Amino acid sequence: MAATSTLELTPVTPHIGATVSGVDLSQPLPDGLVADLRAAWLDHQVLFFRDQDIDLEQHREFARNFGELYTHPTIPGPDGYPEALAIRTTAETRKAAGEGWHTDVSADAEPPSASILRLVEVPPCGGDTLFCSMYAAYDALSDHWKRFIDPLDARHSTAARHGGEFGLNIAEHPENVHPVVRTHPETGRKALFVNQGFTMSIEGMSKAESRATLDFLFAHCEHPAFQVRFQWQPNSMAMWDNRAVMHNAVYDYHPHTRRGYRFTVKGDRPVR
């Protein structure tokens, strides 16, 4: 366990995830503590907080410590909080928000950097979220695979993947091409940047070649050694680095309710 000022960090796995204690997010945070949290977030990729009984305003102010906030392109927030993405699953829900492996809105030209989710109601059991370190997934590839994929680009699309569900079209939600392997702008580390939620194809390949390559990478990233699993409790919060992490909200708790809000921080265009 490491400690800096009041901040205490307990790593959950060697590759990804740390539990934070000694921090009260209902209060304004001093600059030094924000800097410590940012350093811990960059190092561990996902930070987990417990017992944070805060309102939407306090949640938003915490998120603003890490950059300008992002407004989701398809799901409006509640009155006064356009940046807040409501997460709500009930007995009537057929597909839960965040279900399946994905990187948040990777089809944007500048995908978000940080996602900060707090749940206020959780099912009696189930409803965990899995997180995958895309650093660890890339590092575990052979040198042959790294040489093969390092120069590749992939097409990401919100409309092509989710258009039927949300009534989207490509004209309003353009596709974007990003490197298959991106270099993190703050850590300088390489991470895989493909995901089942938004990545459609690899540029310059036949459909069969693209499908085979993506299927291998998707399956590779699902290895448990690259992952951490978070068991939610009421007033728990998770903050993950969207530039180096995929996640999967497991929908195994029907017909129970799971609800909360997520604030997201703007990012930058992925570069090789």
Please give the structural blueprint.
Blueprint: E1 2-4, E2 7-11, E3 18-21, H1 31-44, E4 46-49, H2 56-64, E5 69-70, E6 85-89, E7 114-121, E8 129-133, H3 134-139, H4 143-149, E9 153-156, H5 158-166, E10 176-179, E11 181-183, E12 190-192, E13 199-202, H6 207-221, E14 227-230, E15 236-241, E16 245-249, E17 258-265
Parallel strand pairs: 3-4
Antiparallel strand pairs: 1-2, 2-3, 4-15, 5-17, 6-17, 7-15, 7-17, 8-14, 8-16, 9-10, 9-13, 11-12
CATH architecture: 4-Layer Sandwich
Instruction: Determine the fraction of residues in helical runs and give it as a percent range.
Output: 10-25%
Category from helices, strands and their pairing = alpha+beta
Listing every helix as H and every strand as E from the N terminus to the C terminus, the arrangement reads EEEHEHEEEEHHEHEEEEHEEEE
Sheet bearing the most strands, described? 9 strands, mixed
Query: How many β-strand runs?
Result: 17
Average of pLDDT: 92
Distance N to C terminus: 34 Å
SS element count, helices: 6
Backbone shape: globular
How would you describe what is shown here?
- The protein is α+β, with helices and mostly antiparallel strands.
- It has one domain: Clavaminate synthase-like (Double-stranded beta-helix, 4-Layer Sandwich).
- Helices cover 22% and strands 28% of the residues.
- It contains six helices and 17 strands.
- The chain has helices at residues 31-44, 56-64, 134-139, 143-149, 158-166, 207-221; strands at 2-4, 7-11, 18-21, 46-49, 69-70, 85-89, 114-121, 129-133, 153-156, 176-179, 181-183, 190-192, 199-202, 227-230, 236-241, 245-249, 258-265.
- The strands form four sheets. Strands 1, 2, 3, 4, 5, 6, 7, 15 and 17 form a nine-stranded mixed β-sheet that branches. The chain has a three-stranded antiparallel β-sheet with strand order 14-8-16.
- The longest helix is centred in the C-terminal third of the chain and has 15 residues, at 207-221.
- Mean pLDDT is 92; it is low at 160-169.
